[in-house]
Amino acid sequence: MMKRNIRLKIEYDGTRYQGWQKLGKNANASTIQGKLESVLSKMTGESIQIIGSGRTDAGVHACGQIANFHTDCSFSCREIKEYLTKYLPSDIGIVTADEVSERFHSRLNAKQKTYQYRIAIPGTVNVFERKYLWKYPETLNIEKMNKAAAFCLGTHDFLGFSSVKKTKKSTVRTIYSIVIEEEHSEIRLSFTGDGFLYNMVRILTGTLAEIGAGTRDPESIFHVFQSKDRKDAGITAPPHGLFLMNVEY
Amino acid sequence: MMKRNIRLKIEYDGTRYQGWQKLGKNANASTIQGKLESVLSKMTGESIQIIGSGRTDAGVHACGQIANFHTDCSFSCREIKEYLTKYLPSDIGIVTADEVSERFHSRLNAKQKTYQYRIAIPGTVNVFERKYLWKYPETLNIEKMNKAAAFCLGTHDFLGFSSVKKTKKSTVRTIYSIVIEEEHSEIRLSFTGDGFLYNMVRILTGTLAEIGAGTRDPESIFHVFQSKDRKDAGITAPPHGLFLMNVEY
Q1: Dihedral through CA B81, CA B83, CA B84, CA B87, nearest 10?
Q2: Full DSSP string of B74-132
Q3: What is the DSSP-derived secondary structure letter of residue A3?
Q4: CA–CA distance from A199 to each of A196, A235, A236 (Å)?
Q5: Which residue in B has a C-alpha nearest to residue A95's C-alpha?
Q6: Which residues of B are less than 8 Å from A93 in CB distance?
Q7: Chains A, B: CB contacts under 8 A, how many?
Q8: Is residue B105 part of a domain?
Q9: DSSP A76
Q10: Per-residue model confidence as pLDDT tens digits over A182-221
């Protein structure tokens, strides 16, 4: 029998969570997926399994995570959104809930994602967003960062820019754009690509920060593509500055 | 002997604090003033007393609180800012530190202040700023609020819009402007005046919210001015939506 397929757009403050995904080995950890499944299962009386567009690491935030789930319930999308809004913790918000075709799959159909990383400019003050900014201590040269970012664009094997262990799966990804903007008291890096490996945005950000600080050359990007060795890339920027902004289908 | 006079512009997240002012009866409570005095006294080896432009209540925030203190120390303003930035908790930030004339007094010389109050629009999602928004459950009619706000402008006895107990001090204040803006997922009310009584901005906001929700008439403002009775005004909006934005001298 055909089930309804509901798509959610979700915003969350990842500070308190062990990431998006419920993990087999640690099924009791607090995850966004776990919170959603628990509230939806209570609402429907079914054992709801929710499919996210992809994982986000512990401490990483989202403005536009997409997820879907199948259900036999007869609640309207509006009722589903209202029920979730009422019973989810205040650090998880439902932006939209829509009924979609039975074939829609949040992960498999994702065509492109955008992540944003926020770095505080040294000497500036922003106490209200302090939990969402990486306090990198050096002044960054955006011109150098842009030069290095251009080297990252296109299709490459990003294994060296990831925390992926030996795998048979492809580690080739395509980055369509990296936009670096200085706004108010911060520098924002926006990465758009067809997909990102484990820790890839955080390692790219850490590497670009070292390049902006002058402790690494823009050309060192090529070396990492060649060696495919994580040790040749820069530090992993901390999770609290990272936001999954948007998923395109 | 003449002491140096240092003026600070301070930003703080008031969530964790019992307000700006150290109170005699509760000298151990956590206050912004107390934190500043403690760090400055340690830095200078003097017993520093800091003068704020005015109190903010427990839970109220500031982007532009002004304070000054006198000292014999020889640290530069830059060193003072850096020391404070290093040793203050991360929810208190020093925007600027400047040396001013010995006659400058943060409270007595204040000519005008601006407060902003932020109300979330029902049904919208903003998990990242959830601690700074009042979740008022009703949809607000901004036209009605603007009509009532216009009645508040000018010089009035605001006793009925305050939590001030019987006092010999004047409760007459002048409001120069009230600007109500809808931006993204929130409504922002900005109040500029020559000074505000205890709880006055929060009671004005609560009253304007009830007027926007339609449970109170704009003309009820006049009744409060006439009766001077707190019971005739609306509810006191909670502290977490309120920001001291600016003090003019």
Answers
A1: 160
A2: ---HHHHHHHHHHHS-TTEEEEEEEEE-TT--TTTT--EEEEEEEEEPTT---GGGGGG
A3: P
A4: 8, 11, 7
A5: B125
A6: 125-127
A7: 42
A8: no
A9: -
A10: 988 999 999 999 999 999 999 999 999 999 999 999 999 9
Instruction: For residues B120 and B240, state if they share a domain.
Output: yes
Shared domain for A183 and A163, answered yes or no, is yes
In this structure, the answer to whether residues B67 and B96 fall within a common structural domain is yes
pLDDT at A52: 96
Query: In this structure, what CATH number is given to the domain that contains residue A235?
Result: 3.30.70.660
Catalytic residue among A13, A57, A98, A217: A57
> What is the CATH classification number for the domain harbouring B22?
3.30.70.580
Residue A157 contacts residue A225 (beta carbons within 8 Å)? yes
B90 neighbourhood in chain A, CB within 8 Å? 127, 130
A83 and A126 both lie in a single domain? no
DSSP 8-state code for residue A205: H
pLDDT, chain B, mean: 95
> Into how many domains does chain A fold?
2
> What does the buried/exposed string (b/e) look like for A10-22 if buried means 16 or more CB atoms within 10 Å of the residue's CB?
bbbbbeebbbbbb
CA distances from B23 to A28, B19, B62, B72 (A): 45, 10, 19, 26
Nearest to B225 by CA among B157, B174, B151, B146: B157
Structural domain boundaries, residue A75: 4-100
Same domain assignment for residues A52 and A141: no
User: Is the residue at A159 inside a domain?
Assistant: yes
- Strand spans (E) along B161-227: 172-183, 186-193
How far does B227 lie from chain A, in Å, by closest CA? 39
Taking the alpha carbons at both ends of chain B, their separation in whole angstroms is 26
ipTM value for the complex: 0.88
